[in-house]
Amino acid sequence: MQEFQYCVPTKIIFGPGAEEQSGRAALEEGAKRVLALYGGGSAVRSGLVGRVQASLENAGIHVSVKGGVQPNPDISFAAETVSQYRNTSIQLVLAIGGGSVADTAKAVAIGLAGAEGEIESVFQKGRRPQGALPVGAVVTIAASGSEASPTAVLSDTETHEKLLCTDSRIVPRFAILNPELTYTTPPLQTACGVVDILMHTLERYLASQGRNETTDALAEGLLRTVLRYGCICLECPDNYEARSEILWCGSLSHNGLTGLGRECAFPLHALSHELTAAYGLPHGMSLAILWPAWARAVEETLAARFARLGRSVFGTAEADAAADARRCIASLTAYFSALALPASLSQSPAGLVPDQDLRRFAANCTRGGGILAGPGSLDFEAVLEIYRAANTGLSSACGPF
Known about the structure:
Blueprint: E1 11-14, H1 22-28, E2 33-38, H2 42-45, H3 48-58, E3 62-66, H4 75-85, E4 92-97, H5 99-113, H6 118-125, E5 135-139, E6 151-156, E7 161-166, E8 174-177, H7 187-205, H8 213-235, H9 240-253, H10 267-279, H11 283-297, H12 303-314, H13 321-338, H14 355-365, E9 371-372, E10 378-379, H15 380-392
Parallel strand pairs: 1-8, 2-3, 2-4, 4-5, 5-8
Antiparallel strand pairs: 6-7, 9-10
Helix pairs in contact: 1-3, 4-5, 7-8, 7-9, 7-11, 8-9, 8-12, 10-11, 10-14, 11-13, 11-15, 12-13, 14-15
C-alpha cells in the first residue's frame, strides 16, 4: 500500500429530520451569527429554509438568509454576497442545497475572512486563501459531495471558465444529511447526481495501477451500491433506502476515502468543466456524454484497471483482460443510457458544437498544446478526438446493464 495522510473533519448528522439539529451544530462551532445561503424558491416553499432558520434562532443564533444561488454558480454572486455581508460579523456560512450552494458558501467563507477582492485573488489568480470562516451544509441533493470535500468550483460567465479552489480550510465542519430532503429532486438532477458520484469514485479508482487493496475494495463496494440504487431512485423517488444509500455514497465519494494512496488528476472532470462553463450543462450530464470517448482513449493504458472494475463491479467474465475492459466500458455506457441521459452533445441542450469550439476546449485542457493531466498522456489531438466523438456520439455495442 502506498503512503497517504487522511483527515476528514466533517461531522455528519444523518437521518430523518436531521435539519432540526442545525442550531446545535452551529453552536458547537462557536457561531452566534450565521449567513444561510440557498438556491431557488423550492427550498423556501418546502419549508426547509424556515425549519433551518427556526433551529438556528431557537439556539440563540442571529441568522441572515440569502437565496439566488444558480446551478454552475457564478463568481460574481459570491463576490456580491461578500460585499453585502462583510461588516455584519458573520461567524459561519451555512449552505442549504446542493453542490452549487455549498461551493458558493465556501467561496463566501473565503471572502469574508480575507481582504477586499479575496475571492477574485483565490479563484481567478490561483492564490492560497488567507483563511476561511467555518462552513456547514444542509444537503438536498446527492451529487457533488461538496459537503465533505476541500474543493469549491465557481463559473465565470464572462470568460466561460471554471474556477477552482482546493484548501483544507474550506472543508465543511458539519454536514446535515436527511435523505427525505432528496425525494423531490427532479429525475434529471437525480440521474446527473448519480453520474457525479460514480465519476468522483472512478477517477480516483482509475488514477493508478498501483496496489492498494483496501482502497480498491471500498471504491468497488461504493460503485456497486450506487449502480444498484441509482435507477431505484428514478423509479421510486420516495424510496428511503435508495435515497439514503445514494446520499451517503455522495459524501463518501468525494471525501478522499476512495482514493487513498493515489495521486488523482481528474482528467474527465477537466474535460467536463469546459462544457459546463460554455453551455451550462449539468455536470453529471457532461460527464456521461464524455465517458465513452475518454474511456476508449485510455483503454489500452488502463486495461488492467478496467478489467478489474468490470469483473468486480459489473460481473464481466470475458476471455481476457482486454475483452473485460471493453465490456466494462460498454456496461457503464449502457447504464448512463438507462438513466435517460443523452449520449452525445448533439442530443443535449448544447446541440452540435462547432469544431472551432471543440478545438478551444482541447487547447484549454492541454494548456495550449501540452498534455492533459492524468492517465493516458493525452495530447491536444487526442483530447480533440474525445470532444469530437462526444459531439456526435459513439456507436457502441453496449450490452444491457
